[in-house]
Specification:
The complex is a heterodimer.
Chain A (H helix, E strand, L loop, with lengths): L7 H15 L9 H45 L2 H5 L2 H8 L21
Chain B lengths: L4 H8 L3 H23 L2 H18 L9 H19 L8 H14 L9 H15 L4 H12 L4 H8 L3 H31 L1
The chains are: A mainly alpha, B mainly alpha.
Chain lengths: 114, 195
């Protein structure tokens, strides 16, 4: 087999074939399996802590939601406040100062006609 | 298939001994593929362990036995690809060096007899690594699986999850890019030989 003869395609194929023969599959080392299991266990413990943290966060979020719900319900029970219309509520909130704004009075005096 | 689906089911159910058996059945093959793809012997075991680590944590997603091997190959390809992307500091392969190696290869095979000694094999490995160093990681892996691992188009379709035509186009383009680098290297060599 001459790798440098023929078309470039053939040369490339020959080179790949030679490469396949030249690359021997390495034997796994004795540490392969123990290291793999160590990595699996380490990832598992990380996943476990992450999951625990996520669970704690979810629980806290649910508790906060429940508290907010209860608080909102209590506020809503003040029915009188919510039964007013917008105009009524506005009128109650800003009372007109009657001292300053008195009703206008028109006084018409009749002068004697000359 | 090197293992039966029962073993995979047991591993899915959390049987570590079953998973161990799966690893033992496939590790040599996976190591071989990774060796050829990443071309760095010192990191081969690390990448292979990453493959089996991913397998361990995603095994419960496997539904049918027939997709196990393509799926394991896909994990291998992805791990090798991730590794190659991290190792962007690949050595610069100069085409003049490549040509020199090819001259040596040609000299070694001039008598029509291939000398399978360590030196020759080393040169071959360096030549192909240099050639594939000139193309992208994706092209490198695809060509390795097709040309060196000898996977069929059907197998590659399952691994890459693309149809045959798209795969053929990708293979053709990848090969064209390698051929271009190969052509450039041989062109660079000719004047030297002539002179």
């Amino acid at each position: 087999m001459n790798l440098m003869r023929g078309s470039q395609d053939d040369q490339l194929d020959a080179l790949f074939r030679a490469y396949r023969e030249a690359c021997s599959t390495p034997e796994p080392s004795v540490h392969f399996m123990p290291q793999l299991w160590r990595r699996i266990e380490s990832r598992q413990s990380f996943t476990f802590s992450f999951r625990r943290m996520a669970n704690a966060l979810v629980t806290a979020a649910v508790a906060a939601t429940v508290c907010l719900g209860i608080y909102t319900t209590i506020r809503r029970s003040d029915a009188a406040f919510y039964s007013q219309s917008y105009v009524e509520a506005l009128a109650e909130a800003s009372t007109i100062d009657t001292d300053l704004v008195a009703p206008a009075r028109l006084e018409i005096s009749q002068a004697p006609l000359e | 298939m090197r293992v039966d689906f029962e073993l995979i089911k047991r591993a899915q159910a959390g049987d570590n001994a079953a998973f161990n058996e799966i690893v033992l059945a496939y590790r040599k093959r996976i190591l071989g593929t990774i060796t050829r793809v990443i071309a760095r012997p010192e990191d081969v075991e690390d990448v292979a362990q990453e493959v089996f680590l991913r397998l361990y944590f995603s095994l419960d997603q496997l539904r049918t036995a027939e997709v196990f091997e393509p799926w394991l190959y896909r994990l291998t390809v992805n791990a090798a690809y991730d590794y190659l992307r991290k190792q962007r500091r690949r050595p610069e392969y100069r085409m003049s060096d490549l040509s020199e190696q090819q001259v040596l290869m040609a000299d070694a095979t001039a008598g029509g007899k291939v000398e399978h000694d360590d030196q020759y094999q080393k040169k071959i490995r360096e030549s192909v690594d240099a050639l594939l160093g000139a193309v992208s990681e994706a092209d490198r892996i695809l060509l390795m699986l097709k040309e060196v691992e000898g996977l069929s188009l059907k197998e590659l379709e399952k691994i890459y999850q693309v149809n045959e035509n798209a795969l053929k186009v990708r293979l053709f383009r990848a090969r064209q890019r390698v051929l271009k680098a190969f052509g450039a290297s041989t062109k660079g060599k000719e004047p030297a030989r002539a002179g």
